[in-house]
Amino acid sequence: MIQLKHYSYRMEQTYVGWIRRYILFHQIRHPQEMGSAEIETFLTHWVVGKKVAASTVKLCGSRYPRIQHQ
To answer: For the stretch 24-46, what's the b/e string if a residue is b when 16 or more beta carbons lie within 10 angstroms of its beta carbon?
Structure first.
C-alpha cells in the first residue's frame, strides 16, 4: 500500500517503524480495533515519556490515520 504512493524506501521504513511501535505499545492489538484515543495515548507517550520532539510526533500523528484507513 505504501509502495503505491511512491514514497522513498526510507520514508516507507519510517512509517513501518512507527506503525510497528504503535501496535507493540498497545500489546499487539490490530490497528482496526483502535481509534483516536489510542493514537493520542501513543503519541503522548512519545512526547512525554520518550522526549521525542512534539513536531516529529505531530507529523507522525497527522500521517498515521491516513495510512491506517487505506
So the answer is: eebeeeebeebeeeebeebbeeb
